[in-house]
Amino acid sequence: MTEPPSTEVPYEQQNLHKGHQYIKDGNTLLPCEAPVNPLDLGAGQEVVTVLEKQMGRLVLEWDFSWVTKSGFGVRSAEAEAMRLVFKHTDMPVPEVLFTDFSSDEVITSRSDFFKSDFHPPEGLIGMTIIPGVPLEQNWDTLDDVAKESICLQLWDLISTIRNIPRPPEFEGLYQCAADGSPSRDPMLEDLQKPARPLSSDSELRARIYERYIHCGGTRYENSLLDMLPRSERSVFTHADIAPRNVMVDEQEKITGILDWESAGWYPDYWEYAQILRPAFWGDWSIWMEKTAPQQWDLRGINAARKVLF
């Protein structure tokens, strides 16, 4: 693991390392070797804790008071998702304090990343802190009673966001991100530009099939459309609920749900399908399936995933 600086270094992303804490003084980072009270710092100094750093994204905690998420691919859809959940439900979610999405770069497909003149868009979201620790830190140490309790809590929270009303301007859209933009899910990204809106379940299934064939799928060429689940109802969906995004306290009570970048309106089975993706969290998916209030046949989704992921 990279060690924190022993002397001052410039405040640059390359000098920030996950799990480390620093004192930021203007454009300089100073070592922070002991617990610090921000009130004891000099004017202009701040305590910065690096919570996450990966894939061009940086999550920082400032003075133990608020958090910023910034970098590649941080977009308005994530902020809008948190605003919708905060407004319409009691689900514990970060409150958005401020945003900056000044980049004018638009990504329409993953092929854009390979263009010679491509400059990745960068966004910034400032938000309140959610207390607790990520569930992934202690899931494997929990007994069956605690695991069942957490999963039931999660399904209860999921049921609350499914009732978030669709804004009037999104009427006619069957599937879209929280801000009305097209999905970037590998199952649903459009091969055409500009992206075509998905206005029905049949269009969504056709999109999955189109991508399956485009990416070389042959085994279920004649049967995939019939294998895919059908749903005439789309509901608000987190779309990435996993132990890394679930915060819990010492009593195994859920204190918050993080990472809303994939959220939007999806078929009513989508949350279930996303949760049951192949994962690396031991028996997490088994417990979530066991406690699910409703189960769907995912053979078609799983067949498509083997080609599209």
If you had to describe this structure to a student in words, what would you say it looks like?
This protein is of the alpha+beta class and 309 residues long. The chain has 2 domains: 9-128, 2-Layer Sandwich (Phosphorylase Kinase, domain 1), CATH 3.30.200; 133-308, Aminoglycoside 3'-phosphotransferase, Chain: A, domain 2 (Alpha-Beta Complex). It is 24% helix and 21% strand. The chain contains 7 helices and 14 strands. The strands form 3 sheets. The chain has an 8-stranded antiparallel sheet, with helices on one face. Strand 4 and strand 5 form a beta hairpin. Helix 2 (144-161) crosses helix 6. The chain is globular and about 65 Å long. The two termini are 30 Å apart. Residues 77-282 form the Aminoglycoside phosphotransferase domain. It holds the Pfam family APH.
How would you summarize what this structure contains?
The chain is 24% helix and 21% strand. It is globular and about 65 Å long.
User: What percentage of the residues does DSSP assign to strands (E)?
Assistant: 15-25%
Count of discrete domains: 2
| Second rung of CATH, namely the architecture of the largest domain | Alpha-Beta Complex
Determine and state the CATH class of the largest domain. Answer: Alpha Beta
Q: How is the main sheet built?
A: 8 strands, antiparallel
Poorly predicted residue ranges: 106-114
Helix and strand pattern: EEEEEEHEEEHEHHEEEEHHH
Structural class: alpha+beta
Computed Rg: 21 Å
Per the CATH scheme, the topology name of the largest domain is Aminoglycoside 3'-phosphotransferase, Chain: A, domain 2
Mean pLDDT: 90
Strand order of the largest sheet: 1-3-2-4-5-6-8-7
Q: Shape from CA axes?
A: globular
Helix content: 10-25%
Number of helices: 7
How many DSSP E strands?
14
Give the distance, in angstroms, between the N- and C-terminal Cα atoms: 30 Å
